Amino acid sequence: EAVLIIPKVVGGISAIPERIGGKPVRLAYSVPTKFGGSLCLPAEFGDRPVHLLGGSPDTQYKLSRQLNVVSVDGNYHHKLATRFNQYFQPDKSATFAKNKLWPTLREANLGRNFGDGTDKAGAPYEAFRRSCVNIKRMWNKQSPKRHFPCTLELFSV
User: Fold this and answer.
1) What is the DSSP letter of 44?
2) Cα(128)–Cα(145) distance, rounded to whole angstroms?
3) Dist. CA 42–CA 152, nearest whole Å
4) Rounded-to-integer distance, Cα 91 and Cα 102, Å
5) To bridge 114 with a disulfide, which of 67, 106, 122, 125 should be the other Cys (CB 3.0-4.6 Å)?
């Protein structure tokens, strides 16, 4: 349990306490996208623990080289799973897909269906599950010395 604070003032991070009400403070960094992003530079965050808001899994991982990332949000891969039945494939090995980083379940399974036998029922859950597995694998494989706490318990569909 931590207090999340999104720094909004360039140069103001040093004024943010490390604890509030006995709880640790985790700084939140808004990953730059076409919709916006943090005004503060990653270097300003120093070694403070950071939660990443927004951004794709690969962009989040790249930012972990500049920030002490301890948690990330999953809105990006959730949106692609629920809207398009797409899942994250970090090694781009989905050579069969139009988008090798984000293949669709239809492309990956040659028409196999999920849930009640349609693409509408269980497919978003399967796409989200695959993204979670692949994101966890990416962080653990590419960051073995950081011991990133990928403890996400995956559900079965």
Assistant:
1) G
2) 27
3) 26
4) 10
5) 122
The answer to whether the CB of 52 falls within 8 A of the CB of 69 is yes
The answer to whether 67 and 50 are in contact (CB under 8 A) is yes
Residue 150 has pLDDT above 70, yes or no: no
Mean pLDDT for 129-141 is 92
Q: Which two tokens stand for residue 69?
A: 């990332």
> 29 forms bridges with which residues in the sheet?
52
Answering whether pTM is above 0.90, one says: no
Read off the tokens for 62.
Answer: 């790249």
Provide the token pair at 79. 């949106």
Which alpha helices (H) appear in 3-156, and where do they start and end?
Answer: 57-63, 75-84, 105-109, 123-142
Cβ-based neighbour number of residue 55 at 10 Å: 21
Paired strand residues for 23? 20
